[in-house]
Amino acid sequence: MIEHLLSPDSPFQRRFFFIARRFVAGELIGDAVEAVTRLNQSGITASLDFLGEDVTDRETATRTTETYLAMLDAIGSSGIRSNISVKLTAIGLLIGDDVALRNLERILERARANPDPFVRIDMEGSAVTQRTLEVFEHAFAEHENVGIVLQALLKRTPADVERAIGLRARVRLCKGAYKEPPSIALASMDDIRAQYLRLAEPLLTRGVYPGIATHDRRLIAGVKEIVRQHGIAHDRFEFQMLYGCFPELQRRIVADGYNIRVYVPFGTHWAGYFYRRVAERRENALFALSSIFSK
Ligand SMILES: Cc1cc2nc3c(=O)[nH]c(=O)nc-3n(C[C@H](O)[C@H](O)[C@H](O)COP(=O)(O)OP(=O)(O)OC[C@H]3O[C@@H](n4cnc5c(N)ncnc54)[C@H](O)[C@@H]3O)c2cc1C
User: Fold this and answer.
1) Least CB-packed of 51, 79, 92, 104 within 10 Å?
2) Is 122 marked active-site?
3) DSSP states along 191-251
4) pLDDT at residue 135, as a whole number
């Protein structure tokens, strides 16, 4: 029943797409290109994400990979300033590591034709953390245009940060969007924030062009302070935020002279992404409710 309601073509999903619209650029590549064009005009670069995850059949994994190839062509031909982000479970990780790696390599090769050839592997829940990192390392051994995401809430992440720095791999640091058990994850927001800043410092001082992904004003202030103390040039890292989240804050980061990239998801499989946004912030949940009642 619930699977039926949440399938992208169900009347329920189509009817409620207007609520997700604030956080999702649209259903088609053209919608995403338009959204990125607007961001670029405000001095913001982008990373395009084709929504979808937890794919268990090869045909869907192949179709998703081919959509990514078409996205890369659209980025190249439109001239927008964007790279891409991809979830390994969308391109076959749950079928097999080899399936995800093969599909990822097709994407990495096509991306090399674009002015920004970089491909970010998003990090998903802890059930696939280790496998995601292993597929990443295999790909990185052959392709330098791939990077990873590490989540500050996981207890393993300090070791993963050091490993990524040793490899000279690009890291996006985020808090982590998936609910994880206390045996492997920090539970309190204060602890997660403290770990975030402890990890941001080595990434900023010894890492390669880290992505500082957060809307949290305290973390942004903390990162600016690290940058000031160490005299780090503003072009050595970028802030990253999500499409539709705190647009004024995004504009202020540009005005203050920092690089900022916005993660722009599009497609019909918006449910999982949208529910994570609503679950992590009361303001997002209130926005979703008010959209329903103001319709
Ligand atoms: C570009 C980008 C890429 C990402 N990629 C990934 C990924 O690959 N994998 C992954 O797991 N996650 C990813 N995330 C999501 C990330 O892990 C967090 O879940 C998400 O960003 C929310 O955390 P935050 O640091 O932005 O701040 P938040 O915790 O959302 O806080 C933002 C602001 O809102 C305030 N606030 C927080 N809670 C409340 C509340 N209840 N009421 C009122 N105010 C509140 C805070 O004080 C703060 O000022 C990504 C995030 C970004 C920005």
Assistant:
1) 79
2) yes
3) HHHHHHHHHHHHHHHHSEEEEEE---HHHHHHHHHHHHHHT--GGG-EEEEETTS-HHHHH
4) 98
